[in-house]
Amino acid sequence: MAAIDERHTMTLNMGPQHPSTHGVLRLILQLDGERVVSVKPIIGYLHRGIEKLAEGMNYHQVLPLTDRLDYTACMNCNLGYVWAVERLLGIEDEIPARAKAIRVIMAELSRIGAHHIWLGSHANDIGAVTVFIYAFRDREWIYELFEEVSGQRMTVSYPRIGGVSQDLPDGWVEKCRDFVKRFPQRIDEYEKLLTKNRIWLKRTQGIGTLTPEDVFEWGLTGPMARGSGVEYDIRRVLPYGGYEEYDFKIPLGENGDTYDRYLCRIEEMRQSVRIIEQGLDRLEDGPIMADVPKIAPPPKVELGTKIESLIHHFHLVLEGFDAPAGDVYFASEAPKGEFGVYIVSDGGPRPHRMGFRVPSFANLQSIVKMGPGGYLADMVALIGTIDICLADVDK
Amino acid sequence: MTEDNATRPEWIKALSEAFPETPLEYDLGGVPTLKVSREQYVEAIKKLRDEPALRFQILSDLKGVHYPNDDEPFEVVTHLTSMHLAAQVAVKVRAGGDPPTVPSLSAFWQAANWHEREAYDMVGIVFEGHPDPRRIFLEEDADFHPLRKEFPTEGFED
């Protein structure tokens, strides 16, 4: 690129209300004609102080806050948090097999749902409106499954420390199997619209190229790392929650551009379907909550029949349980990358410090690297390919 | 962790050989933790990243924590991941002085930039050598650091 003459550049504010910034991201762009010279992201418009709020709550009460991190993949945030607390308490081995399988199924359904929002909005930003409609149509399918188990489409708060809040309703497994059977055809449909679409290729190939060195330099995780050929998937590298027993492939890109990240995420959806299928096969009858009455809430039906359960329930809701003093860092693979939870406990019922390492926050930084040198219109593609959720970025 | 030396994986031995003066501790999830001084901090991170037997290449997380009852109340906790070892390690360093200061890691990873800005914004730890030491979430003219313990969780006073 030729040297930039400062006098001929223009400063442009993109956002915080620009429709392609998905919420409230503000980018200060320095432009030389249509070329981007530098990018300066401004974030924090959606900061709600979730880490501070968590310090004033007991461990059960923090759960609904995690829904509000990455609300497009609330189940993954819930589960990441719940797994972290279970590791802090040392009750990971107590989780019953049925609860483990349900959690993996839910995590993967949520991953597919989050990838739908990415696919729909990414394609919509670039101009392929049809894909947006298709993706949001099929996302509803997943949300209906969530609604049946938890009563909520989004902000599900379905898992609990020790298990899950309720068992799968009658007929749910059949509906999920129907999803597993019929959904892969829908992925083919998206691919038919995009994978060989000339406009799509022009807008994504060679855009925002990242080398494996860049991935380490910028701390990228999730599809952002795998699109550049870095085989970093926490489900494989640091298995948790029973993932070591599941058979799935980790799709990798070669060129590290927007198109390869698109292919990775599309293939990830297929792999998630495979995992769900295996999870459904593993569903055996049994309890859905660990037998640790000092920590795990009692089953709802017992509240009306057993005085001990009622007392436990009251105690857990009002006082919480004491966690052992110490700290723990737990990483899980959310749709957007590494979702880490750092908990410092002082031995009391409330966390001394609750830190969330959110994937969008770490990944968004790389726009400073990817943006310059490209065109202004490519910024829209880059925001889409990073797959940000501003609620996740700003905490 | 209650494992004895014999059952520990090879890389833990490599880790303790690389840091003979720093006793290894473990967090409640069994992640090895190195507590280093401010002077050793940068050197330790460099060693963890570049030592061929370790190669902790990914800066996963960096957080500031406030322990109001300690002599040096501000701590920076860094979590690094090594893909080839399939392991994570934590490095803890206490910030000293007023304002509390630790060296910045932005020379090693661009990724440290925002994480350190967040730790400054939330806890008020200053990172020496940081290229862009501004607040990240709150407004520039805010005169508080919300994740300090004296800051109330609700209302204006506790």
What is the secondary structure topology, with strand pairs?
The complex is a heterodimer of chains A (395) and B (158).
Chain A (H helix, E strand, L loop, with lengths): L9 E5 L11 E7 L2 E8 L7 H6 L3 H9 L6 H16 L7 H30 L2 H22 L8 E2 L2 E2 L7 H23 L3 H7 L7 H6 L5 H4 L7 H4 L20 H25 L24 H12 L7 E9 L2 E9 L5 E7 L1 H6 L2 H4 L5 H11 L3 H5 L1
Antiparallel strand pairs in A: 1-2, 2-3, 4-5, 6-7, 7-8
Helix pairs in contact in A: 2-3, 3-4, 4-5, 4-11, 4-15, 5-6, 6-11
Chain B lengths: L9 H9 L6 E2 L5 E5 L1 H13 L7 E9 L7 E9 L4 E9 L5 E3 L8 H12 L2 E3 L30
Parallel strand pairs in B: 2-5, 6-7
Antiparallel strand pairs in B: 1-2, 3-4, 4-5
Write structural notes for this entry:
The complex is a heterodimer of chains A (395) and B (158). Chain A has two domains: 6-42, no CATH class; 50-394, Orthogonal Bundle (Cytochrome-c3 Hydrogenase, chain B). Helix content of chain A is 48%, strand content 12%. Chain A has 16 helices and eight strands. Chain A has helices spanning 50-55, 59-67, 74-89, 97-126, 129-150, 172-194, 198-204, 212-217, 223-226, 234-237, 258-282, 307-318, 359-364, 367-370, 376-386, 390-394; strands at 10-14, 26-32, 35-42, 159-160, 163-164, 326-334, 337-345, 351-357. In chain A, the strands form three sheets. A three-stranded antiparallel β-sheet of chain A has the order 1-2-3. A three-stranded antiparallel β-sheet of chain A has the order 6-7-8. Chain A has a two-stranded antiparallel sheet with strand order 4-5. In chain A, helix 3 (74-89) packs antiparallel against helix 4, helix 4 runs antiparallel to helix 15 (376-386) and helix 5 (129-150) packs antiparallel against helix 6 (172-194). The relative contact order of chain A is 0.19. Chain B is of the alpha/beta class and 158 residues long. Chain B has a domain at 5-101: NADH:ubiquinone oxidoreductase Nqo5 subunit (Beta Polymerase, domain 2, 2-Layer Sandwich), CATH 3.30.460.80. In chain B, 22% of the residues lie in helices and 25% in strands. Chain B contains three helices and seven strands; from the N terminus they run H-E-E-H-E-E-E-E-H-E. Chain B has a five-stranded mixed β-sheet with strand order 1-2-5-4-3. A two-stranded parallel ribbon of chain B has the order 6-7. In chain B, a hairpin with a 5-residue loop joins strand 1 (25-26) and strand 2. Classes of the chains: A alpha+beta (395), B alpha/beta (158). Chains A and B meet through helix 1, strand 6, strand 7 and strand 8 of A and strand 3, strand 4, strand 5 and helix 3 of B.
